[in-house]
UniProtKB/TrEMBL annotation:
This is DUF4239 domain-containing protein. Keywords: Membrane, Transmembrane, Transmembrane helix. Pfam families: Bestrophin-like. InterPro entries: DUF4239. It comes from Mycobacterium paragordonae.
Length: 264
């Protein structure tokens, strides 16, 4: 469910919906609770509420910070994998100058076909699907290198180095695809804890004894906005390959650009 929301709802609209829904809903609940339990407007229970709010708020802040930090680290890891894949592709393109022109042209064409297939594979992997054309294109790249007959020590060195770089690119792509296909976001248990702690924070703000209704509404709305912002971050960061904060496929596009313009 969270993946569908991140993939189909613009981030700005998602943030607005969360803020309006949670903050507005909390203010409405405050009015209903105060109407049914008018004694909560007094300050007699504030000592207990203040203690509970301090404990809940601390646990909530620590927990959400831990979750967001972990998710952000995951996105940074995937960004690094994508950059490694792109860097390896660009290095292979630059090393082609060491080979004879027919070999260089053949390898360049095979690399270009592979990078285009990998780029087409990107959204398919995010949806959990296999993309066989990318595997076949990668095999053709290996075959193109296997056809090279080095004539000089320099060519032998570059050929050995290219095999190592190609293996790195293949490994980075495999890790990226596996992560994209298997990542389903936070588990049901984790979402339960996130929503439970968020509800406790809002509940403490709602039952806190404040004599003036407007001041209390502002306080509840402020806490609601804070909770909404945290839930927005969790949603946007929960899927490394979806949404506006997701890992970008730009490194693959950069490789295609270099291969398409050998002079650059």
């Amino acid at each position: 469910m969270s993946s569908w929301i991140v993939a189909n709802v613009p981030s700005w609209l998602l943030l607005i919906l969360l803020v309006v829904g949670i903050a507005g809903g909390a203010v409405l609940v405050r009015k209903l609770v105060r109407r049914k339990f008018p004694q909560l407007a007094g300050a007699d229970h504030n000592d207990a509420t203040r203690f509970a709010y301090g404990v809940v708020g601390f646990v909530y802040a620590f927990f959400i910070g831990f979750v967001v930090s972990g998710m952000w680290s995951q996105i940074n890891t995937e960004d690094g994998q994508a950059r490694d894949e792109g860097t390896a592709g660009i290095q292979l393109a630059r090393d082609l100058t060491a080979f004879d022109q027919p070999d260089a042209d053949r390898i360049r064409q095979a690399l270009l076909e592979y990078e285009r297939a990998a780029l087409a594979e990107w959204p398919q992997a995010v949806r959990g699907y296999e993309y066989p054309p990318a595997d076949k294109a990668l095999q053709r790249v290996y075959q193109a290198y296997q056809q090279v007959q080095p004539h000089t020590d320099t060519q032998k060195t570059f050929l050995a180095t290219s095999y190592g770089t190609l293996d790195k690119m293949s490994k980075a792509r495999t890790e990226r695809v596996m992560q994209a296909q298997t990542n389903t976001g936070p588990s049901f248990a984790l979402w339960t804890v996130i929503l439970l702690t968020s509800s406790l924070v809002l509940s403490c703000a709602i039952i806190y004894g404040v004599e003036h209704p407007r001041i209390h509404s502002v306080m509840v709305a402020t806490v609601g906005v804070l909770v909404a912002a945290n839930l927005f971050l969790v949603l946007e960061l929960s899927h490394p390959f979806l949404g506006e904060m997701a890992t970008s496929s730009d490194p693959l596009r950069d490789v295609i650009s270099v291969l398409s313009n050998p002079s650059t």
